[in-house]
Specification:
By secondary structure, the chain is an alpha/beta fold. The chain folds into 2 domains: about 160 residues, Vaccinia Virus protein VP39 (Rossmann fold), CATH 3.40.50.150; about 55 residues. The protein contains 8 helices and 7 strands; from the N terminus they run H-E-H-E-H-E-E-H-E-H-E-E-H-H-H. The protein has a 7-stranded mixed beta sheet, sandwiched between helices. Helix 4 runs parallel beside helix 5 and helix 7 runs antiparallel to helix 8. The two termini are about 40 Å apart.
């Protein structure tokens, strides 16, 4: 099953695809044009896939693309508000990418069956990332893998998540940089941007008469900077 020469995934979706387990049963929530499940199907990397969206317009585009790339036997579409129309027995890996963190929280919270160690979530939030990480930890979801990607001037983080309360990370940097290491330039760039954002927030806290909160945040910024610099130095020594 060769891939159509005109069909490529951007870096963000390729990173999401890399965290989907081989030969899994997949659901892509908020699928839009269904490029991710189609690409995985053409590569022989999923046993079946559901391309789900809450809107009919994107689903029609998805259906057209599924037919165009001849993956109808592997990829189907479904009108679904989050995971409401998906059954737990149908899927093993669930991708929720390109949405705000608060929306991802709502979707995960609305599907209690995700609290199953056999399931994997691949999450790529666009906003409210610290809040999402905190929610995952509170609910017993551990981040198994996390990697950042810089694409078109934006830095995104993609995480593979499993329900595993015993593996949950609770260190002080987790809400801000999750499980990212500083081994790649994209990871370091993401971490640098987080540090800049937190510095601005600390400045606002100081101006509003909250020096203790500002100092605590600046301590976190310094720890992120130290981790970033160590990663850069180790990378340059290779």
């Amino acid at each position: 099953m060769g891939l159509h020469p005109l069909f490529t995934l951007g870096g963000r979706l390729r990173l999401c695809a890399s965290m989907v387990r081989p030969r899994t049963a997949l659901a892509d929530i908020g699928t839009d044009h269904a490029y991710l499940p189609i690409w995985l199907a053409k590569q022989g990397l999923v046993s079946r896939a559901i391309a789900a969206d809450i809107r009919l317009g994107p689903l029609r585009s998805a259906q057209q693309n599924i037919s165009r790339y001849r993956v109808q036997e592997l990829v189907s579409t479904r009108l679904s508000d989050g995971l409401d129309a998906i059954l737990s027995v149908e899927v093993d890996d669930i991708v929720i990418a390109g949405m705000g963190g608060e929306m991802i929280i709502k979707i995960v919270a609305g599907a209690p069956w995700l609290k199953d160690e056999r399931k994997r979530l691949v999450l790529q939030p666009m906003t409210s990332v610290p809040r999402l990480r905190a929610f995952l930890a509170e609910q017993g979801f551990a981040v198994l893998r996390e990697q950042a990607i810089v694409e078109e001037g934006h830095a995104y983080s993609v995480m593979q998540v499993q329900y595993a309360p015993e593996k949950v990370n609770t260190d002080e940097l987790y809400p801000y940089i999750g499980m990212l290491d500083a081994k790649t330039e994209d990871n370091r760039e993401y971490m640098r941007r987080v540090a800049v954002s937190l510095e601005k927030k600390a400045g606002g806290l100081a101006l509003s008469g909250k020096p203790e909160e500002a100092a605590a945040l600046l301590h976190t910024v310094e720890q992120i900077k130290i981790k970033t610099e160590k990663g850069r130095q180790n990378d340059s020594c290779r």
